[in-house]
Amino acid sequence: MNLFCSQDKSRLGNMEIDKAIRESDDRRLKTKYNNAIYVIKRALALYSTEEVAFSFNGGKDSTVLLHLLRAGYCLHKMEQNCSNGSLNGFPIRTIYFESSSAFCEINSFTYDTASSYGLQLDIISSDFKSGLEKLLKANPIRAIFLGVRIGDPTAVGQEQFSPSSPGWPPFMRVNPILDWSYRDVWAFILTCKVQYCSLYDQGYTSIGSIHDTVPNALLSISDSSSCKEKFKPAYLLSDGRLERAGRGKKFSSSVDNGPGSVDSHKSSLLIASVIAVGEEILFGTVEDQLGPSLCRKLHSIGWSVSQTAVVRNDIDSVAEEVERRKSTNDMVFLYGGVGPLHSDVTLAGVAKAFGVRLAPDEEFEEYLRHLISDHCSGDRNEGHSFIMWNDDNLLEIMYLLLWNQIPSLMGLTYLKIKTIDLDMMALLPEGITELLHHEKLAVPLIKCQNVIIFTATNVTELDTEWDCLIELTRSCDLLSTMEPCMSKHLQTNLSDEQAQIESAVESLCKKFHPGAFSEIH
Ligand SMILES: Cc1cc2nc3c(=O)[nH]c(=O)nc-3n(C[C@H](O)[C@H](O)[C@H](O)COP(=O)(O)O)c2cc1C
Ligand SMILES: Nc1ncnc2c1ncn2[C@@H]1O[C@H](COP(=O)(O)OP(=O)(O)OP(=O)(O)O)[C@@H](O)[C@H]1O
Ligand SMILES: [Mg+2]
After folding, report:
1. How far is residue 136's CA from residue 427's CA, in Å, rounded to a whole number?
2. Which of 29, 250, 402, 451 is deepest in the core (most CB within 10 A)?
3. CA Rg, the chain, in Å?
4. pTM of the model
5. Looking at the predicted complex, does its ipTM rise above 0.90?
6. Which residue, 237, 251, 239, 206, is CA-closest to 58?
7. Ligand minimally distant from the alpha carbon of residue 171
8. Each residue of 439-464: pLDDT tens digit?
């Protein structure tokens, strides 16, 4: 179906967006805007208007992209001296994959927006892949603009220009807001006074289907007197990493149901691998107490440890070991090599093992900045954040505070450093990282799919991190496999009475609910 809609007088003019951003004093937003416009202009220089399409679904990210495209298209035409900045309608073909499980608010916002801005809306009722196949057969489309952002599960491995995946019809995916954070999206919407779908004012922070999306519990306003739960608007979510918290079911399954899926092992013994990173352990300079302690902890909750390994603090050594272990174990635990130094490469190794980049995580950076703001004077410098230290000791304090680490061998080197680039510290494996916050932890635990990274450097810190992890497993679906269980091993010399032993085991199992016992091989 093709709708060519008439325009609404109340809509934002094309260049009003550009003007609002230029007049704003939010330097970060200006930079993000300029980069996105640059990507759009490059795409429009590479492909003709007939060869591009815009994938619009009424969500906040695609709403931002719509306005960027309108501004970018005008700027592109002005540079070619074809326009004076006014534009009738929106000439880029817009596609919407309609589904019976979409929210009606999303549908009506999509259609109203199409009508206000004169979008040529192609409504496609089939699934993404076959819909795109048909679209590309019938039209000369070579590139599609998407509102995908880092942190979306589908963004893993994507760049601003990414060819469609193997098995998909061939086209270029253009992602102008790939590097935008949740906060950037809302800064843009609020600064430009862009209209957005009403669900975002009711606590929804990311919108999928009616079957997998609920308002974000972090925005709940608890009010015992009212029987209907109320929520704050989406732009008040302070930690953008939790934007998909209302899309629990689908998100957790897409993260965890890979090979060695945790769920599939639920009733059998769970297997973990422990990896220590650091030359000091490898060369015997420091005795490793964490490994044995972690093994005991895992054993106490009924897990079996298949392997412990010590690897060098270099990216390839970490990556190789993690890659080897992550598909054959339910969970892989790492410690060592995590911190603000360039030589701390555990996270880079984990990223490499999963084939993703280390990407700056703005919210994590913000979190770190808050944490240390009492101890330093901050200075923002063109997107890079440096913390200036007036006193060498403060650096050490901050280091201890942030990473629970005691500078040992390299202490002298970094006591001399006066600036720390927080952007460097806030690099995390892109698209696969979850930060597990707990009030008792200064720095959250880092979880990349089935790999958990501890920042502890001594047994006491490990005890705290472990207790927090166990506590978090109770409130968090993703780690339900970590729930404590009991394990008792019996040995017997009654080797001739195999049948009797088997029948004793059978009757024990029958006494409890099915699946209560599992065999350890
Ligand atoms: C225009 C368009 C192009 C897409 N191209 C690809 C692709 O090349 N490879 C792929 O694996 N998925 C592709 N997808 C599917 C998305 O990655 C993702 O599955 C979809 O947006 C559903 O996201 P959700 O599960 O968060 O709703 C595409 C989707 C759209 C709308
Ligand atoms: N049903 C759809 N029709 C057209 N495009 C879609 C559809 N679903 C997803 N897309 C494209 O994929 C992008 C990413 O989807 P995603 O759901 O992450 O973002 P959003 O819907 O814009 O915002 P939100 O994260 O708040 O739901 C969208 O911005 C849009 O470009
Ligand atoms: Mg969405």
Report:
1. 38
2. 451
3. 26
4. 0.63
5. yes
6. 206
7. 1
8. 888 778 899 989 999 988 899 999 99
